[in-house]
């Protein structure tokens, strides 16, 4: 906790904590010391806080095979260089995802329960146990009277000496044979030499084998004292619903035998719903005990935090996060329930002040199309979902002397210094650092709790059915989309809660709990909900009436504007962000202090205008003195004539607006626009105004998937610019309101205005045959491990240059 004065004092120059980091992809591995140093130095110069190293598929000749002494030495060198530069250094405990590799044989591999269903007659049958695939293990066999899926109950039949002995019966019957089968899933996107099966996340022996073979050599190579954390990416072990010890674990945890009723996982009976709930709960506990706890305790032995994206398959609960040190999510959508909300709710409930997110995962696909405005807009969405540490996705390692643009990751923005707009990155990252640090201060105010229908999700997962063993995804589907949207659009915030969270959450601290009608609530949970009501709170089942029960918001809600409310020792502050492409205005009952992450000054105001994708920090109860009211802007001059442009050294006259793609379709880089400006009077504040930009339709790029974020504005400066007046740098532009203050550099008489415009590297990407050749060669040598995402759309909808007629206005 901190005071308002503490936060105000440090907001302009916050400590390093909270600086955005980057996931740093090492391809191959094909790496060398000089390029490691160069890229880390570029990260530090831009204001990044560090790198999380991820080892992925080859893009060129492999120079340091994964796990080799040469490879481990380079990991250690990178860690030492990062420390020298003041950067945090994190390591992913494996190559690709999920954990696994060549050390994972059938005894350690992820397994799935496979069912063979056969109709038989009344005679006795001896059925040989056949292992169709290496690693197959017979589990049990059952017979039931009837056929065509009719039996409602079955009895186990004996199996001896490799034979299932089905006794004679009085009518046609059905036989079910359960086999434990290795899923066969290979680790995704691995480096060369790291290929293999994904491991069994329910087995401590499998976890310890991975630690021995992969994780410990990596951690020791990096040196524990130099590591910020060790990392596990999202859980994507598809269909892994079995482990050899589950019969013993089930009876120990649930108090009854699973084996006689195992068939109820595929057959509906009177008690099958509860058995499926108990089965799913057992899998969640085995994941926690034999994977999460094992890795956290091992890392703790070296004094290193364990960070994880704990959602997906196996069925991690929200509260599973409590067995890790740093909770991480991904996915944006402030009015929805993305994975970031799964993580940020757990962080709040279990007392973690920092919650990170993999951000910009599919930003404005394909690689190099993302603009600084795209990055700012998506970052705000994560902040609104409770995140306060950004892990960018990401920075592709790429040799500086390679042909073309170099290497990119198949499904993400290439967010490094190859982008022509990189000169604006320093100011953008500084602003995101300020907001991340600020949102780590105090505690969040989230008056509404949404109960996660975990039992319903477990019950919905049936062997042989299409429903995934992904508790987060199923639970999100079971919670009506209107619930989070109604809460957020009312100017309020919420936490998700689950059954385990109730052990640490006081019913008196949950004034409003949403439990959608028909949700299965265990007896202990129902008693907790009754205690909420006894403490004066409300439990809402009819979600259509939710808006009628919400408490009044601290700030009046406004369309597209999200609010984060945090409480300090002696006051509150609010982070507000416009998530849309239209201007929004907020009016308050009393003046509030406004801070901007992009400026050093503060103002006292009872009305604020939020331009598209703009954010602000609001502090009530301030002692700041109000300044003079601002007058309307007075036009001084419209800069419509006299321009020249230079791509390199040679300049020529140009008429603005000026769009590069009309004549230089594949040019990526910078261009310098110049004009002389006559200013007879420089009193007041002189603002260079480019206009608001043009909103674009959400479906204007139809190839983009729903999770690919893009800001719905065509900027007047495409896509970023640095503004100089009389050789004085006045500021960088990449986001609305697209205005720069010229006052300090202006002088009466003739002034030289210089606008250096930077576009994206997408124009060059559209003509980069070298990248396509590198991908094809890597596939020919190492098999198909990736496909370059949407690369054929690199040239779609590009707008570079000075796309408007600027003007200078006076503001008093």
From TrEMBL:
InterPro entries: Class_I_gatase-like (IPR029062), Galactose-bd-like_sf (IPR008979), Ulvan_degrading_GH (IPR053161). Gene3D superfamilies: 3.40.50.880, Galactose-binding domain-like. It holds the Pfam family Glyco_hydro_106. It comes from the Bacteria. PANTHER family: DNA-BINDING PROTEIN (PUTATIVE SECRETED PROTEIN)-RELATED, SECRETED PROTEIN. This is Glycoside hydrolase. It comes from Kribbella sindirgiensis.
């Amino acid at each position: 906790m901190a005071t308002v004065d503490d936060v105000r004092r440090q907001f302009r120059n916050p400590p390093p904590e909270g600086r955005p980091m980057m996931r740093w992809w090492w391809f191959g591995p094909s790496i060398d010391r000089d390029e490691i140093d160069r890229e880390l130095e570029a990260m530090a110069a831009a204001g990044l806080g560090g790198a999380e190293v991820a080892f992925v598929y080859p893009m060129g000749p492999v120079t340091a095979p994964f796990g080799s002494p040469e490879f481990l030495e380079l990991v250690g060198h990178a860690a030492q260089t990062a420390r020298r530069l003041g950067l945090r250094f994190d390591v992913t405990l494996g190559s690709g995802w999920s954990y696994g590799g060549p050390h994972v044989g059938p005894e350690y591999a992820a397994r799935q329960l496979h069912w063979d269903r056969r109709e038989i007659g009344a005679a006795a049958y001896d059925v040989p146990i056949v292992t169709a695939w290496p690693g197959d293990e017979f589990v049990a066999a059952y017979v039931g009277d009837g056929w065509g899926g009719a039996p409602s109950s079955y009895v186990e039949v004996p199996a001896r000496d490799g034979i299932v002995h089905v006794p004679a019966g009085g009518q046609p019957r059905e036989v079910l044979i359960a086999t434990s089968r290795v899923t066969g899933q290979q680790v995704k996107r691995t480096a060369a030499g790291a290929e293999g099966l994904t491991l069994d996340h329910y087995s401590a022996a499998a976890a310890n084998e991975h630690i021995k073979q992969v994780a410990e050599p990596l951690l020791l190579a990096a040196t524990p004292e130099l590591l910020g954390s060790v990392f596990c990416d999202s859980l994507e072990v598809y269909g892994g619903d079995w482990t050899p010890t589950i019969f013993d674990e089930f009876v120990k945890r649930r108090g009854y035998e699973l084996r006689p009723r195992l068939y109820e996982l595929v057959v509906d009976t009177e008690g099958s719903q509860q058995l499926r709930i108990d089965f799913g709960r057992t899998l969640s506990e085995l994941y926690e005990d034999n994977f999460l706890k094992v890795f956290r305790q091992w890392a703790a032995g070296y004094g290193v935090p364990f960070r994880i994206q704990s959602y997906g398959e196996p069925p991690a609960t929200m509260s599973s996060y409590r067995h890790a040190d740093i909770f991480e999510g991904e996915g944006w959508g402030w009015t929805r329930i993305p994975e970031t909300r799964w993580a940020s709710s757990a962080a709040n409930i279990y007392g973690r002040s920092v919650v990170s997110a993999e951000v910009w995962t599919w930003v404005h696909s394909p690689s190099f199309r993302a603009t600084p405005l795209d990055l700012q807009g998506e970052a705000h969405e994560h902040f609104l979902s409770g995140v306060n540490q950004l892990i960018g996705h990401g920075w592709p390692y790429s040799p500086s002397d390679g042909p073309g643009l170099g290497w990119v990751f198949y499904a993400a923005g290439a967010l490094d210094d190859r982008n022509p707009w990189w000169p604006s990155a320093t100011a953008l990252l500084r602003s995101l650092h300020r907001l991340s640090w600020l949102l780590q201060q105090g505690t969040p105010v989230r008056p509404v709790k949404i109960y996660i229908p975990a039992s319903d999700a477990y019950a919905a997962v049936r062997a042989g059915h299409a429903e995934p063993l992904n508790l987060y995804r199923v639970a999100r589907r079971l919670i009506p989309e209107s619930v989070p949207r109604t809460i957020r659009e009312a100017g309020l915030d919420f936490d998700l809660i689950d059954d385990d969270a109730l052990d640490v959450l006081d019913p008196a601290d949950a004034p409003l709990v949403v439990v959608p009608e028909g949700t299965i609530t265990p007896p202990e949970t129902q008693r907790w909900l009754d205690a909420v009501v006894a403490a004066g709170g409300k439990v809402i089942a009819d979600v259509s009436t939710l808006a009628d029960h919400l408490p009044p918001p601290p700030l009046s809600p406004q369309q597209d504007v999200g609010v984060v409310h945090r409480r300090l020792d002696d006051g509150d502050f609010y982070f507000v962000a416009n998530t849309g492409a239209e201007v929004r205005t907020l009016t308050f009952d009393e003046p509030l202090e406004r801070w901007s992450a992009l400026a050093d000054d503060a103002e006292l105001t009872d009305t604020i205008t939020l331009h598209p994708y703009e954010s602000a920090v609001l502090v009530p109860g301030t002692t700041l003195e109000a300044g003079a009211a601002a007058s309307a802007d007075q036009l001084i001059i419209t800069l419509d004539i006299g321009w020249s442009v230079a791509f390199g050294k040679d300049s020529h006259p140009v008429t603005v607006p000026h769009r590069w793609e009309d004549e230089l379709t594949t040019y990526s880089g910078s261009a310098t626009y110049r004009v002389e400006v006559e200013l007879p009077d420089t009193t007041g504040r002189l603002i260079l105004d480019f206009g608001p930009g043009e909103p674009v339709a959400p479906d204007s790029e139809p190839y983009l998937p729903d999770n690919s974020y893009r800001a719905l504005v065509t900027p007047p400066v495409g896509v970023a610019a640095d503004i100089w007046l009389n050789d004085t740098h006045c500021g960088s532009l990449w986001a609305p309101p697209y205005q720069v203050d010229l006052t300090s550099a202006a002088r009466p008489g003739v002034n030289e205005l210089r606008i250096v415009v930077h576009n994206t590297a997408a124009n060059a990407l559209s003509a980069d045959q070298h990248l396509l050749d590198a991908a094809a060669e890597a596939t020919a040598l190492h098999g198909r491990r990736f496909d370059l995402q949407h690369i054929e759309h690199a040239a779609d909808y590009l707008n570079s240059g000075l796309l408007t007629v600027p003007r200078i206005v006076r503001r008093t």
